[in-house]
Design a protein that fits this description.
By secondary structure, the chain is mostly helical. The chain contains five helices and no strands. Helix 2 (24-31) packs across helix 3 (35-42) and helix 2 packs across helix 4 (50-59). It starts with a helix and ends with a helix.
């Protein structure tokens, strides 16, 4: 995934997390992923898998399409 797209995704996750008033720990628990993994995604340090994106979108009660609408 290119760096620009990773940064847009990172910004989207941070925006939604703050909107829902979730900490990284809260969101990681809801999405059933490691907090360190979420931190790496939010700082655009790592590519993210489809399954992790799906878990994060479900934690926000969004479809994957709604989640990726940025």
């Amino acid at each position: 995934m290119d760096k620009v797209l990773l940064q847009k995704l990172a910004n989207r996750i941070k925006e939604l997390r703050k909107l829902h008033k979730y900490t990284q720990d809260d969101l990681a628990d809801l999405a059933q992923i490691a907090r360190s993994t979420l931190g790496n995604i939010e700082t655009a340090q790592n590519d993210v898998t489809f399954s992790k994106l799906n878990k994060i979108s479900k934690a926000f009660n969004l479809t994957l399409a709604e989640f990726l609408n940025f």
